[in-house]
Amino acid sequence: MERDTVAPPPRRRTGAAPWLWALLAVLPWLWFPLRDPLGLVGDVLAILLPVIALAAAATAVVRGRRRGVPSAVSAVLAAAMAVVGPWTPADAGAVRPGAALTVASANVTGLPSTVPALVGASADVLVVVENGPGVDRAVAAAYPFHVSSLGAPAVGVYSRVPVRLLERPGPDLRGMRVAVEGPTPFVLYALHVPRPWWTGRGSYQATPAEHHRLVEEVAARVARERGPVVVAGDLNSTDRARDYRLLADEVGLTDAMRAGWAGPTSVTQWRLLLLRIDHLLVGPGWCGDGARRFPLPGSDHDGVAATVGPCAGPSR
């Protein structure tokens, strides 16, 4: 007696369709055309971008195995380009001989342990953010000229050339506007913009919308300056977000730190986010040389420094 043979049921296809994995491989690259139109959402995503990319890559490999590898690689490559792109050298040219000053900026978290590094930076003009009375006294003793405000924000400017306070911190200016009488006089914006956070309550923080408004206010003030201008300090604005591009692209400031390779300046609890939030920007016709970062013992930031002044030749 012949047995009836039963055909096995057709195997159901598991996992996402190939076209979906192809779409997921393209998706990360939409970041570049969409990051500014996304507005505040784009601002938040820009801060979290390295972590988001790694999580997306891991999920693609776990869920898709070999099919997910191209999507994972694509996510990592797009994020790497977004993060590292603003660190690459973009030298605007050399500073004119005899017209240069070295400007440094350092967020010291109020710690006196940073004083040797501050003095050792040998800056002609030094901006100290999250200043404190002890730091202020110690650094002022090493410089013939200084102006400071120890409220919120606590910012000090210490200089080897005469300086004059033009404007104190206020609701729309989170820092000081200072006239610097260097070889070529300029206006210095010494800034500490509150960090963007989901709430404006807490220790020196603001909502993303308020943070963006404050940077827009800085951009408008800088654009109105009739002479040379330098912007230095902790802007709490990552260089992969629209606030940085507002200053660098729309206002036309040159990033003096990109005279060489730049890199992250938030170096402790937020280091995995690879944030460069301490900036040194100069106005049109000015250039930077010798850009460098320097450690600040105990602080959660690295300092930044560069020699700045009128460009020796044609500038952008």
Description:
The chain is of the alpha+beta class. The chain has two domains: 18-86, no CATH class; 90-310, 4-Layer Sandwich (Deoxyribonuclease I, Chain A), CATH 3.60.10. 30% of the residues lie in helices and 24% in strands. It starts with 17 loop residues before the first helix and ends in a 6-residue tail after the last strand.
The CATH architecture category of the largest domain equals: 4-Layer Sandwich
- CA-based shape: elongated
Look at the helices and sheets and give the structural class: alpha+beta
What is the overall number of helices?
A: 8
Main sheet characteristics: 6 strands, mixed
CATH class of the largest domain: Alpha Beta
User: How many domains is the backbone divided into?
Assistant: 2
Q: CATH superfamily of the largest domain, please?
A: Endonuclease/exonuclease/phosphatase
Q: For the residues shown, what is the average pLDDT?
A: 94
